[in-house]
Amino acid sequence: MKVFTVARLKPGETKITIEKNQLRILDKSYEFDVILDEQTQQDELYVGLNIGQLLEQFKNGISQVVFCYGQTGSGKTYTVNQLIPMILPQILESKFEISFSVLQIYNEKILDMLYKQQLKLRYKNNEFVPENLTKFICHSQEELVKLYNKANKNRIINSHQLNDFSSRSHCIYTFHGQTTDLQCEFNIVDLAGSERLNQTKVQQIQESVEINKSLFYLRQVIQNLADKVQQIPYRQSKLTSLLKKSLNGKSNVVMVICLNPSDDNLLQCQQSAQYGVKARQIILQPEQQQDDQQRQIRELKQQIVNLEQQLKIAQNTIKSLKQNQQNQLVQQQQNSIQMEQINQINNLLGQNKKLRDQMQHINEQNFALSQLNHQMQNENQDLRDKINIFEEIISEDLKKNKDPFRKDWVELFQGEGSNYLEIIINKLQYYKQLQVKYNNEKILLNPIHQTVKNSRNQRSFSIGKREFKF
Ligand SMILES: Nc1ncnc2c1ncn2[C@@H]1O[C@H](COP(=O)(O)OP(=O)(O)OP(=O)(O)O)[C@@H](O)[C@H]1O
């Protein structure tokens, strides 16, 4: 897509001829997309400039810029004045919030036409922006008309030799469209007239020098854009700086070449037409402009949402960690209680084992004791039997007056003594020892009483109820 170029002829006698979209000026031909002759009416201007389509594109967020270029008195302001009233009612019929601003560049100074103040140019986000430019938000056509008239009233107009109502400044009318995420502009640029210096009064020379200088730089920018030169010298003038965003290829551009076709202006017409032809070579790729500020706000808002979500997750994590910590504490307490219980159980088991060992030992002792008891009882019984036998024998012997210490008794207790008395004493000692060993338990039925010595140094002992003295 290229810059759309339109040639518009001001009414008047002329030698310029039109063949389809070719303009013949003197010996040269110039091709345009559309040529509007001197008879063109306002509605035909609307169609010729394709305004309906420009407005549609604007409503889709694509910026538009219409330049009116030409020598002084060629009908630039006339064209702009026809154009803007046709745009006003329709531009409000969009999804955008519309605000309106007007600025002019006069002697390289930028002036706010709605607030009458000089503005500074600031380089921001790769663009030149007039600082503090007044933008009035408009909701009705009447508001827009009022502002438009106010701006025109403030515009610096000077009478000079060539045009009694010549505008000596470049003027940029801008409709700003803004949605939450898109911003676009519809710019109408009424350039100051190019003229030859020798045709101007001396006191207006400074104005003309500045105008011609800025138009020269604009021509240079357009030449470089057409030739696809990498470095475009936008910074050389306020005009080219401000038009950078319109000419950077992302906006749709319409160039209206206004021609005053009278005979003494034919060379000027050739220069202007040549300018249009050059502009027609510029390649454009119009696209929607994201509102960087809004985009940043949106991104920041999204970041806030993300951070809030992360915060929530972190809070939940902390909560569950605390819960876990508490659970762990409870678990630890339970574990220590369980450990204590286990230790107690182990202690009890240890004690139990000791007790069982003791029990086992006691059982073994009991078993040994019962065996010993059994053995003692047997021995006791044996002894009783022997004592009974002794008693019988002794009583028999006593009856028969026989010596009770007979040798045959000793045979009965073989190995336990050499005589009856020794045998009895040994047995008594043995039973004593057993009594001491087994805690004086009366496990023995001791029928034999201890021997004692009497005053006559007689020893006696008793067996059962009997007493023996010797
Ligand atoms: N198409 C047209 N039909 C009728 N009159 C026109 C037309 N174009 C321009 N004129 C008249 O020509 C005169 C100069 O036009 P205009 O002021 O628009 O020129 P200009 O290019 O803006 O000049 P300057 O650059 O000096 O401001 C005005 O009186 C205007 O009414």
TrEMBL record:
The keyword Nucleotide-binding applies. GO terms for biological process: microtubule-based movement. InterPro entries: Kinesin-like_fam (IPR027640), Kinesin_motor_dom (IPR001752), Kinesin_motor_dom_sf (IPR036961), P-loop_NTPase (IPR027417). Its main location: cytoplasm. This is Kinesin motor domain-containing protein. The keyword Transit peptide does not apply. Residues 2-282 form the Kinesin motor domain. SUPFAM superfamilies: P-loop containing nucleoside triphosphate hydrolases. It is found in: Cytoplasm. One of its GO terms (cellular component) is kinesin complex. It comes from Paramecium tetraurelia. GO terms for molecular function: ATP binding; ATP hydrolysis activity; microtubule binding; microtubule motor activity. Residues 290-393 form a coiled coil. Keywords: ATP-binding, Coiled coil, Cytoplasm, Motor protein, Nucleotide-binding. Belongs to the TRAFAC class myosin-kinesin ATPase superfamily. Kinesin family. ATP binds at G70, Q71, T72, G73, S74, G75, K76, T77.
